[in-house]
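Narrative progress, year one. The postdoctoral researcher (J.K.) led the effort to move from monomer predictions toward full complexes, under supervision of the PI. The following entry was the first complex the group processed end to end, covering 893 residues in total.
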Amino acid sequence: MRLELEKRSEHSALMTILSPVLALVLTLIAGGILFAAMGYNPGEALYAFFLEPLTNQWSIEELLVKAGPLILIAVGLSVCFLSNNWNIGAEGQFTIGALTGSIIPILFHEYTGPMAMPLMVLMGALGGMAWASVPAFLKTRFGTNEILTSLMLVYIAQYLLDYLVRGPWRDPDGFNFPESRLFDDAHTLMTLGDGRLHLGIVFALVAVLAVWFMLSQTLKGFEIKVMGETPRAGRFAGFSHRGIVWFGFLISGACAGIAGMAEVSGSIGQLTPVISPGYGFTAIIVAFLGRLNPIGIVFAGLLLALSYIGGESAQVSIGLTDKITRVFQGMLLFFVLGCDTLILYRIRLIKTARKAGGAHGRA
Amino acid sequence: MSNQGVPSSEPAEKPVLVKAVSISKRFGEVLANDSVDLTIREGEIHALLGENGAGKSTLVKILYGALEQTAGDIVWRGQSVKIPNPAAARSLGVGMVFQHFSLFEALTVADNIALALPKDTDLSNLPERIVAVSQKYGLPLDPFSTVADLPVGVRQRIEIVRCLLQEPSLLIMDEPTSVLTPQEADELFKTLERLAAEGCAILYISHRLEEVKRICQRATIMRHGKVVNECDPRLETPATLARMMVGADVHAIKSNSEITTGNPLITLRNLCLPAENAFAVELKNIDLEVFAGEVVGIAGIAANGQSELFDAISGERRIEDVHAVNLLGVPVGKKKINHRRKLGAAFVPEERLGHGAVPGFRLSDNVMLTRFSTEPSLLLRGILKRGNAAEMEQRIKVNYDVRMTHDNPEARSLSGGNLQKFVVGRELDRKPRVMVINQPTWGVDAGAAALIRQALIDLARTGAAVLVISQDLDEIYEVSDRIAVISRGQLSAPEPAETMTRERIGMLMAGMGEKHDNNTDKGQKHAAGA
């Protein structure tokens, strides 16, 4: 007996929806086995990880606070990924967006006019775009692999942040702690609800709607998908390869930059050496789990935000290490990419029987 | 079904080598082979004929062990056998030369052959054996040359020699002449006849009825998964063979001899284009005029600059010299493809899936692909009007007989012939004034091919200039008013189809029409050896 992958004649609509669900179930099963191997009761541990955080108001607000940057970055990445450009450096664009978005609150903190906040958003976006334009330029000019260049720029961005908060941008009244000055109220994003939740989630939802409209209704969205799936056909349709590389990187850089600026201005209130628990990397998982579809990304963003909060919650209630969050995120990406095979292939069990014709389909 | 070629007319019946007895193969709902019987005798060249989708490939794959039959038996020299995989087929004595070669370009001929031999083969004297076999059967081959440097005809020889080294009793050849010049094909026929004389049976799959008639003693004709006829092709005409294949009279292409040509609508002036990479062809000083109302055919062997020429005319690659390409009186050398489309030009590339159409897109979105720039109804300030594209898709489907299992499917799910009808129909539906088409009926069944060719001629007769690039000489003769030949990036001057003989085309294909005598010695040798 052997398993064979048989190509389907068209994409399976059912599997497109079912694949992430299947991946989630497999992640839970594998997670349960992992907990059992570590000596925890799997049921209890999974409850602490995935359900307990949903039982109180505070956690739900916290969930949205964390989902905001994930969704915003992932929506940008979905455009880039659909066009077959692999921007792995959203974490770096996020960091640079946070830096450029902090120029007004740190260097020009006296300026508190009504335009301060819109300017901060704009500068965050420009910072992210500038950082994303480096791999775009290298790819279009020299054919460099953008996966490597965008990833390496993440570390440069992080060291730049580290240098600035320990050096020139350190708060003069901050007792030598490696932190910038606290942002003025005029430089802090408007809050919603009980106080933690800020406008960042609104930015994310606006981006979701805008990108959804672009991808489904406009020629630009059509171009992105054609170039991503079949560049040769794209050239035949008159689309430009270079143009689409730049477009994908700039959109995703702008989204990540705004997310970085919003995180600093809305959640942290100052620059610190570490401003992200890996949002830029986790957003890659969000983008794929959400089928590179803006609406799907909203749900995937909420789920991955839950994995952050679940990690913290399981640490408190049953003493699990919070590294388990990363393990869960990794397993989820692994399973979702594996299950995606089923969209274009079906699994068949081939019996090598004496008598011919023993093939039974099994999904 | 009449049995026209009577077996008893053969002087002596040779012993039966292999017999397929009511072979059936089911893929899901589809019965690709329905109780197929096939008898091949030792030393006979047996043709397997049928339209695309008739079930030829399925049957051959079962014989070669690449597929397992759902029902039925294979009897080899009187004994029932199972052929679970290609290795089993090879040890039984079945060899196969595929239409698309599986060779590693960076390796030598000997390395490529060694890779395909059974694990326990002694490789020490392989080069000598290759030379011995290639000389015996008239297939000159240097075991130490690198595959990347070899022309297609020679690559095919590697595949054949690879099979012959295992001394097969049955050699299956899938469309072997599709990549050869007429002269190369003649050489191949001699080899096949020599093999047959030694007792090796050959199962010969081809669309080219002329050559089947010329070299095959038996023919089995399949249609819709069943064997519909058996005959002696030597006693038939191409027309009767074609009728058996498609089950009805093939619509004869009508080319109105009274052509009224007008202004030149496609003009190429000293068109030069450097090679894009090591495997591409450089276009050298190409001159051509195609007038309104005529069809010009460009013949040539694969990879002699056809796709480069197509890209230069369509604008997928742009030329520094704006006057090198002139469409409908406008110099467009540097203009993009959509600019050229707006002038009234339409293009159909060779590769339908992945160039002419996006495989994973629905047909309506594939209508959008080439027509958003010319149809105001498809695009309103950057917003796509998908409803209108779906209407066009319906219209193309009806007018060009595109068959599909459900409405508006993904392009990849259509069969080759149907997708080609769609891709051609999509452009004809625009009523273009210039049409450039590369390989209009490559791998397309006879019915669809006739429909497409007739549509191209009809388009020209309404006053359009049509340029057909094709490797199929029958097709070139069927549609063209004038014929030119492309060889290593150079184009011969077009000549009227009535005075252009096949022999002359063959000579031009081998490089005799090249204007500049700057060929390397190696190139000359290749041309001479072909």
